Amino acid sequence: MKSFAVLLALVASGFCPQLHAAETKPNVVLIFIDDMGYGDIGPFGSKLNRTPNLDRMAREGMKLTSFYAAPVCSVSRAQVITGCYGQRVSLTGVLSPGSATGISDKEHTVAELMQAQGYATMCIGKWHLGDQPDFLPARHGFDHYFGIPYSNDMLKPAKVNGQRVVPLVRDEKVQELLLEDDQDGITARYTEEAVKFITENRARPFFLYLPHTAVHTPIHPGAQFRGKSSNGRFGDWVEEVDWSVGRVLGTLRELKLAESTLVMFSSDNGPWLVKGADAGSAGPLRGGKGSTWEGGVREPTIAWWPGKVAAGSVNDAITGNIDFLPTFVKLAGGTVPTDNKIDGKDISPLLLGQTKESPHEARYYYSQYKLEAVRVGPWKLAIRPQTESLGKGGLPVPASLDKPRLYNLETDIGEQNDVAEKSPEVVAKLKALALKMAAELGDGKPGPEVREPGRVANPVTLYPVVADAKKPAGKNKAGTNFMP
């Protein structure tokens, strides 16, 4: 019903499917990795992980070197799907299995807007915007869904056998209950589903959202890749992700779809540093997952569209995953409805080489509803204490509006040298922008322009679990921590 309402709105604004039928609509593929750091792939400086397919993707496309996500996964995925900062849609933390909240059906999702333009749509992988039926992908614009709908460490004891499992969902039904070791094959299964979807829809425009479970802990590379890298099992899984990217791009080439398909590769947040050898690397950036230091939210991102995106190009303008929705919809020939304000901007002129400038006035770094920093050009101002990483010990580095910290990311990408006292005019400008955004979205609590999330009464898990399944974080048999 909601997709039909969106279509009616588009028709009222002048959109007519028949008038656009003759136009060539590009296919869009978004490959989204979980917990991959800025320094985990070759194009962004990794010397540990072999990523030949991503290396080629970067040679044939564009690296976006100041591309931002969010500190944790559900927030980042909300930004992809709605084009808004997670705070605007009240998705500010990590959703647990059986949560009563999730994505609202009042939001216009990227999948719904692509559907309205005649696209086949599918989500394959980690959704993490709620596991109740009202929140699942098929209710929000995706024709089909296949995947583990939340983090792969959120295993719970199944009532049927008492074993700790995660659900593998097909559309809205649990297809299988996966033991932890069953996750060894999940990247390959996602990849084959992606290839099948592309192949079956090669004669019409399609939008594929491929949010991998990899490389979130517990780490589970496939048998073909296990022990093959020089960076332990984490490196093995990065290299399997690279293989998956190669399969997707190879399929597009084989089907003669490469020149009519935009492929974007990115990650949801930085590396989970507390996981040690099972964590990735932020490269030259400071901090990791859970933080608003650059290493927590600045992601390795590549755009590939042969003949349209310039080969071997690099752009350091401020962009982010809030920009996916308006960009994809614009390229599809659509218009983003204006009844819900979004934060994203159309960055297709940047991707197509028509400009090198960011369409954003500023970039805002939120943790929950706390605005911790703001960036304009090379300047980043921290106005709240910042922690280094989720779950990592140590005191936050202090900052406040009265005594902020300022970094020039162009000359100090690692955020080591506070130059606030030397640049009072820059500090004043960024403080003014921070106060403006805090008045809109909030600073410590929701602001006046925050919208309600989706809510359901009496939520249940996707599969029956034992009564005492809700317990503190512990150890699974592989020895890695899980989040309850």
CATH topology of the largest domain: Alkaline Phosphatase, subunit A
Number of domains: 2
Tell me the number of strands: 19
- What is the mean pLDDT? 93
Multimer state: single chain
Q: Name the CATH architecture of the largest domain.
A: 3-Layer(aba) Sandwich
Number of helical segments with 4 or more residues? 11
Order of helices and strands: HHEHEEHEHEEEEEHEHEHEEEHHEEEEHE
Largest sheet: 11 strands, mixed
Based on Cα principal axes, name the global outline.
globular
Helicity level, as a percent range? 10-25%
In terms of structural class, how would the helical and strand content be classed? alpha/beta
Tell me the strand percentage band: 15-25%
CATH C-level class of the largest domain is Alpha Beta
- What is the radius of gyration? 21 Å
Uncertain spans, ≥5 residues at pLDDT below 50? 6-22, 469-484
According to CATH, the homologous superfamily of the largest domain is Alkaline Phosphatase, subunit A
Calculate the terminal CA-CA distance, rounded to whole Å: 34 Å
Any chance you could write out the topology, listing elements then pairs?
Blueprint (H helix, E strand, L loop, with lengths): L1 H11 L4 H4 L6 E7 L18 H9 L1 E3 L2 E2 L4 H10 L18 E2 L7 H6 L4 E5 L19 E4 L8 E2 L6 E7 L2 E7 L6 H15 L5 E6 L20 H23 L6 E7 L26 H4 L3 E4 L8 E3 L3 E2 L3 H8 L16 H4 L11 E5 L2 E7 L2 E4 L22 E4 L15 H18 L12 E2 L29
